[in-house]
Structures are given as C-alpha cells and as structure tokens.
Design goal:
By secondary structure, this protein is α/β, with parallel strands linked by helices. The protein is built from six helices and 15 strands. It folds into two domains: 123 residues, Rossmann fold (3-Layer(aba) Sandwich), CATH 3.40.50; 88 residues, Beta Barrel (OB fold (Dihydrolipoamide Acetyltransferase, E2P)). The chain is elongated and about 60 Å long.
C-alpha cells in the first residue's frame, strides 16, 4: 500500500493533482491511499500517524508555508519523498536544504505529474508491471502495456490492438494518451502506437507488430525522431 499526501490550501489545486495520480496508480494496479491537507499545520499533525511515502507539497500557503513545513518534517526524521509544487521557480534552490526529490511548476501538466510519480515509485521500488485498465460489462480487465501494440479511435470507441486481437471500449483517445507512458506516441489523429513494437517506418505508415498503421504528416517528424532515439538505446 502506497500512501501519498497532497498539501495545498487551494481545493482546486488538490484536485488537479489527485485526479491524474489516481488514474495512474489504478493503471499500475497499485494499492494506494491519498491523504489531503489544507495547511502545513494539518499535515504535521497527521504525518506521524499517516505514514506518508510520497508528499506533494505546495510552497506558497497561508500560515506555515511549504518550506517551513518541510523543515519541520525533516526534524521529525521523516524520510517521505518530498515533491514541491509551486508557481515560483525561485524556491528551487532552497529545496536542497530539505532533500526535495523534485519540483513541479504550476499550472500543472498531467504528463509532468505522472513522470515525477513514476520516478518516485521507482525510488520506493514499487514500479512493476504496468497495465491499462478497461471496464467492461463482464468486469474490469487489465491489459499489460508491454502487450499493447497501439490504440485506435473510431468516434466514441477506442480499440486496443494486441498480437492476440483487439479489445474495444468507449472513450476518447486524448484521455487515453494522458494515462500512458512516453513510449506510446501519437502517429495519427486516430492512432497511438507503442514505440517498443514499431519495427519499420514506411513512406505512408509504420510497421507495428503484425499491423501496418497510418502515419499522418503532422506526426511524421516526431515519430522519426523518437524511432531513431529508440534504436540508439
């Protein structure tokens, strides 16, 4: 069980963090608990009993600010992974004093939040097999990301393409994209492809597993760059 704290005195900013964090943790199949605090004082009062593994801490808050709160946490010998969230990059260097793990600048970008979360989970040793979770009438299905070749959209329906076939569900490709790691790359308005399964680029598309997928001119250059980098790794 991973326990994550969010400390911010603005409810809408708490939600802006909580929603992508929950989505990602569900995708990973992790058991988790998220504790929210509206002030540094509330955080310190509950920190010893809540056992936080990871803390997203706003710096600019009324009352006890984030930096003062972090110093108090460290004096309590807390080894919580500390991630500052702030609209003020000037505070970055002060974070060294409290062993901050990372910074996220406001306004939040979901991809940045998820990137930092993955790094923190790796530090905790909790990042194992990753899954995409699909809710169907028969129940909830978890598809390992490494088995997914691509996602394809058709109006309100999205299809997961694998070597064994395809799985359909209702959704939007843009929302799916927000939940995925960076090796899933947009190649067309209707397609997201798993870079790890792309074996060749053609003038009008790419070979991804046993599928030939279209590549639009809009996304051609970014695919070529990403594919070249993947070959060098």
């Amino acid at each position: 069980m991973i326990t994550i704290g969010i400390c911010d005195d603005e409810p809408k900013m708490q939600k802006a963090l909580r929603v992508p964090l929950e989505r990602k943790l569900q995708l990973l199949g992790e058991e988790y608990r998220i504790q929210e605090y509206a002030s540094g004082e509330a955080l310190l009062a509950g920190s010893q009993t809540d056992g936080l593994d990871i803390l997203f801490l706003d710096i600019k808050m009324d009352g006890l600010n984030g930096m003062e709160t972090a110093r108090s946490l460290r004096r309590m010998e807390s080894d919580t992974i500390l991630i500052f969230v702030t609209a003020y990059p000037d505070f970055v260097f002060q974070g060294y004093d409290v062993h901050a793990f990372h910074y996220i600048l406001k306004p939040y970008e979901d991809r940045k939040i998820l990137e930092v979360l993955e790094q923190a989970l790796k530090l905790l040793g909790n990042l194992g097999e990753q899954y995409y979770t699909v809710e169907q009438k028969s129940g909830i299905l978890r598809v390992p990301l490494k088995h997914i070749l691509a996602f394809c959209s058709d109006r309100r329906k999205v299809s997961i393409l694998t070597a064994d076939g395809k799985l359909d569900f209702y959704g939007k490709l843009g929302e799916v994209e927000k939940q995925l790691p960076d090796y899933f790359i947009r190649i067309h308005n209707r397609y997201l492809a798993n870079l790890n399964h792309i074996t060749a680029l053609e003038p009008d598309g790419c070979v991804c597993g046993d599928h030939f997928l279209p590549v639009s001119r809009t996304y051609r250059q970014q695919l070529e760059i990403a594919f070249a980098r993947a070959l060098l790794q």
